[in-house]
Amino acid sequence: MDFAGPIDPLTGTAAARFGLYVHFPYCLSKCPYCDFAVAVVRQVPEERYARAVLAELDTRLAAEPSLRGRTLESIFLGGGTPSLWHPRWVALVLEGVAARLKVAPGAEISLEGNPSVADAERFAGYRAAGVNRVSLGVQSFEDSLLKALGREHTGPEAVAAYETARRAGFDVVSMDFIYGVHGQTRAQAESDARRAAALGPEHLSTYALTVDRESLAVATPLSRQLDKGEVVLPQDEEVVEMTKAIRDAYGEHGLLRYEISNHARPGYGSRHNALYWTGGEYLALGVGATGMLLTSAPGERPSGYRYVNLRGSDAYMRAAEEGTLPESSREELSPLELFEERLAMGLRLRSGVDWEAVCSRYGQDPEPRRKEIARLVQHGLARLDGPRLVLTEAGADVHSAISARLL
């Protein structure tokens, strides 16, 4: 199934322009590296939470009636552990969304699944509910690394979850992995990559472990352990070597690096995730969810706002049930702030980004950046592909530093 998606002209990437993210915050346990809004509970309030999500959507549509005329091109159910949500409540949410908003034919509808709670009946139920893409949080096949990451499944269970998704009728399966883990070797990172690619997924997301306080929403147990010197991560040079080994292993199986941390078979890049990388708009519902909408009229310099929902599940559900927006914060976004995001995120894509067109759209002068771009090209960190600035493999490895210099 090759999901239909419009092409973003500034990057040439197929990406949803308007999407919906639904956050399911409940987990069996919290991983020590996780900074997401999650709650570990004995009993998940599945029905109440589903109805609260739809209540929030009603409140948002009442506040922004123009959204009713928009067409959703992607829906992503993330978490937390959405595969703890019974298929009937997932169906209730998806049906409720479709009753309130237009959903494009062939829209990409994804759900994150935990290998330890994957079973054929539940996965078949998600497929019947309208989910057409599943993303499995494997992280590693090595049991020692899974233990270090606080994961409860085993390597064989991860493989079984993949096979279960296939039997349930999912033609598109993605898997997530983490590397740069304390105690991990380059050989283990490469082994994970080769085992993952050999299974035949359409998509693989592979992220370097993040424990930097500036990159986290909140401190995590692992970041605190690192501060105390209780754990030691691999050196940067080792992580770069892991990145190269993973990229080569995926490439040998036809999974091409289309974004810094994402590989896919041609035509199977995530349309929803590409929305974030190409400046698309997205509604977000649920505990701790973050959404971004534009407020500028066509032809005006882009401006908008970003909102973040309450991180406590009880407080969130009470607010949603009372008909108030369950937000913890809202930030106005100026053309300059949107420009910075558009350029930095566009450079994550291996197709590159039309940097002068980005400057023009957001009212920024390209001239001060020409010398820096020439230096990047001279030193082999970037190349110009027509109007697009494209980071080389070496440049992609230092994306953050390059973005900072250009901004």
Main β-sheet description: 9 strands, mixed
The separation of the N and C termini measures: 38 Å
- Please report the total strand number as a whole number: 19
| Helix-strand makeup class | alpha/beta
Mean model confidence by pLDDT: 92
Content of β-strand = 15-25%
Percentage of helical residues? 25-40%
| Rg for CA atoms | 21 Å
Strand order of the largest sheet: 11-12-10-9-8-7-6-3-13
Spans with pLDDT under 50 lasting ≥5 residues?
none
**How many helical stretches?**
15
Given the C-alpha coordinates, what overall shape results?
globular
Mind explaining what this structure looks like?
This protein is 39% helix and 24% strand. By secondary structure, it is an alpha/beta fold. Strand 9, helix 6 (186-199) and strand 10 form a beta-alpha-beta unit. Helix 1 (46-63) runs parallel beside helix 2 and helix 6 packs parallel to helix 8 (236-252). The protein is globular. The model has no long low-confidence stretch (mean pLDDT 92).
Q: What is the structure about, briefly put?
A:
Helix content is 39%, strand content 24%. The protein has helices spanning 46-63, 87-100, 120-129, 143-148, 155-167, 186-199, 221-227, 236-252, 271-277, 313-321, 335-346, 355-361, 367-378, 393-396, 399-406, and strands at 7-8, 13-14, 18-24, 26-27, 39-40, 71-79, 102-113, 133-139, 173-179, 203-208, 256-259, 262-264, 281-286, 290-294, 304-309, 327-333, 353-354, 382-385, 388-391. 43% of the residues are buried.
Identify the notable features of this structure and list them briefly.
407 residues; alpha/beta; 9-stranded mixed β-sheet; 3-stranded antiparallel β-sheet; 39% helix
